[in-house]
Amino acid sequence: MNPNQLDTSERPFVLIWELTQACALACKHCRADAQPNRHPDELTTAEGKAFLDDVREFGEGQLLVLSGGDPLAREDVFEFVEYGTDIGLRMTMTPSGTSSLSESAVAELQDRGLRRMAVSIDAGSAAAHDAFRGETGSFEQTVEAARIASSVGLPLQVNTTVCAQTVDELPAVRDLVSELGAVLWSVFFLVPVGRGAVLDPISPNEAERVMRWLVDVNSTVDFGIKTTEAPHYRRVSLQRTRDAGLDGPAPDGIGRRTGITAGDGFAFVSHTGEVYPSGFLPRSAGNVRRDSIVDVYRDADLFRSLRDKDQLTGKCGACEFRHVCGGSRSRAFAHTGDPLASDPLCAYVPAGYDGPLPE
Ligand code: SF4
User: Please, are residues 342 and 313 in contact by the beta-carbon 8 Å criterion?
Assistant: First the structure.
């Protein structure tokens, strides 16, 4: 799928399915408030396959990310990878850094058709990563799984959470991402939901500094860089491009020229089938047990309003970058209860704007 040709009012670029909230880890900042045991009302294997059939209605090659919790906490995860692959989906996964992520598990996932594996690395050393996650041994297991993925030729993505506790680790993580041979570094700017509410976000000015640094890093490394819940990276990148006297919107590290935000190129299905614009914006627009995911994504009022950047309010609504950026709708929702409000992490103030600034 060419990301530049994707009509995000028709299909998401990324669709996440939270297979389960069960996970052997209890990371301090878990969005899912992961639990040790599986929830009794999770989608069953048959319901999961019916959901995958629905997802296929988006079209050939729809990207689906199996997430959690730990997707490997479900024994039918291999079946889902194979089934999705057989019907024409691009199946990827974000497993947790636990002992279940063994060499044989990685090899079997690849055999069944997995196209990419994403692991979470939040610091450049075991001491810092494990302290942040609250789990001794997590770093070692995660890095080992990443090395296995690279060694068997399974494309690797590294996800990193940026907050006050991790921001100084970013240069070390960049080096590790490079050493591991990852194809993409996804840098997630903390949204205070779930257990993540106990962490401290960085300030808007610090976020601006990090994004400028990421733009610089992007031009020197051979892996892609994308931000999650920080689309103003695209604004920063565009400003840099213009400052350099170049024309046109700057593509990000994976070649996209259009922004992907909650409900606009992005959707999330919970372990019980609720359809959210994002895992960090837990407002349900339907349930895949009774509704078609395609109909909810295309037609639900919540999703339609999130795609209409002219409905944004406050600073984001007045911003000339709202169509390439649009701000994190999840962070706006977390802070105000209104998903169309301004993103409080952005330091940019549009010229002539004299309305209220986010707290
Ligand atoms: S004000 Fe809003 S739309 Fe404009 S760059 Fe900042 S986050 Fe993006």
Answer: yes
Q: Give me ligand 1 centre to Cα 325, in Å.
A: 6
Under 8 Å between Cβ of 334 and 45: no
- Residues in the chain with pLDDT < 50? 251, 253-255, 257
Instruction: List residues near ligand 1 (CB under 6 A).
Output: 232, 235, 315-316, 319, 321-322, 325-327, 342-343, 346, 348
Rounded to whole angstroms, the Cα distance separating 75 from 66 reads 13
Ligand 1 centroid from CA 308, angstroms: 14
Residue 332's identity, in one-letter code, is: A
The residues that bridge with 266 in the sheet, in sequence order, are 14, 262
Q: CA neighbours within 13 Å on the CB side: how many for 48? A: 26
Amino acid at 106: V
Q: Could you tell me the distance, in angstroms and rounded to a whole number, from the CA of residue 234 to the centre of ligand 1?
A: 10
**Torsion, CA 54, CA 57, CA 63, CA 64, rounded to 10:** 0
Tens of pLDDT, residue by residue over 55-91, are: 999 999 999 999 988 999 999 999 999 999 999 999 9
In this prediction the pTM is 0.92
What tens digit of pLDDT does each residue of 291-316 get?
999 999 999 999 999 999 999 999 99
Taking the C-alpha atoms of residue 293 and residue 298, their distance in angstroms, rounded to an integer, is: 8
